[in-house]
Amino acid sequence: MNDKSYDVIMAGGGVMGCATAFYLLRSDPTLKVAIIEMDSTYEKNSTVLSDGNTRLQFNLKENIQISQYGLDKLTTFSEEMAVDGIKARIGFRQEGNLFLSDQDNIKNAQAGLAMQQSLGCNVEWLTPDEISDRFPLYNKESFAGGTFGPLDGTMDSHAVLMGFKNKAIDLGATFIEAEITEFTQSAGQITGVKLSSGEIIKAKYVLNSAGAWATRLAQTVGIELPIDPIMRQVFIVEIAAQPEEIYPLTVFPSGLYLIQEHENRFMISKSMDDDLIGFDFSTNRERFTEFLWEELVGYAPAFDRLKITGAWAGLYAVNTFDGNAILGEWPTLKGFILANGFSGHGFQQCHAVGRYLAELILGNPHKLDLSIFSPQRIFGNKPVFEGHGKLV
Questions:
Q1: Which residues form the signal peptide (predicted)?
Q2: What angle do CA 49, 139, 300 make, to 5 degrees?
Q3: Mind listing the pLDDT tens digit for each residue in 115-157?
């Protein structure tokens, strides 16, 4: 390393750290910015292990606005992140998102829809018959209706990460592969980070962008974040049926969801109460057959004949306080900036959050006010809940 001091350090080189570095350097090319990532292969990085989905369908105004900005940026992302003429090809498929509701949650679902439509989102309500007509694999007796957003979709999350990373480096960021073991502070001010090698790198601002590892690092400066690393397994299955339709990402009323990869190949997953807390990346295919298969067949009978062809596990950084992001400066430690606790929807929020945090660090006016997610709400015990029914 040639320089032991930076203006801003990104403690974690996932999509949130790299997006913030990009927005910082786009606003001020003179900044010295370091992205410190413990594993440049990103083998266990939550960005790469995510489903790569984005959606307008939230219940909270700010979350909807975050997604609106993200969708807008995705239209030009490949060109904007090009380096030396090489574009970031993210393979964005706008196959839509379908959130199915049972009778108990229909009022909440329709209230969320009203909020989305009031903000100009292209989202509609479908009856069970309309859903069955479009997507005949689904059992219309198992839900009371659903919201469908045709602009929602999935993409190559690794390509998005590499797009931000490569462009940030092109703009002047220094990428350092090293493990941060602790943050350093003095007199209520963050001063930098300490690496596993013992080396200390100084900075006026440090962004905790460590994802599922964020709580562990924050503890080194005496801060307890209400964030747990929770393991989520995803299963790949192939069904005997050969659907002619393109299926949207579908969330069933129980929270079980599926994503069609192509033709008769689907990804299946669900958050469950007994999901492991900790840094476990092992998979257990029996978990699908014991806990998910029968439930899935109730919603989509054609899945009674299938073959499990793969599985993987990744980590959610779950905010146990209210399930939403914690963004901004920690009130008792100047210069310590948080981008933590996204609870499974961080990947899709990187565009607006990266811009917001860059504005915060630079002291620039905010184009989208996300102060509702300030860590101050933890001190005041004022949780900001997204609402029921949006579980992925």
A1: none
A2: 35
A3: 999 999 999 999 999 999 999 999 999 999 999 999 999 999 9
